[in-house]
Amino acid sequence: MSRSHGGTSAFERLRARLDEGSDACEECGFVDDAGEWEAVTTGATVEYRRECPSCGTERVRRYRL
Ligand SMILES: [Zn+2]
Question: Superkingdom, according to UniProt (predicted)?
């Protein structure tokens, strides 16, 4: 990556990675196109949470910053 950092935060990079993944619920297979990951920082890590509107299963992805 030779471009300057230019305001692309670690959060944005992680979110972009999440958005590339499947939106299908792991439990019921519902595809939530309009859903968004909710970011929660806990010091050295960030959690992204997303709740399936169909079955209510909460998915969590956790990354180190
Ligand atoms: Zn579901």
Answer: Archaea
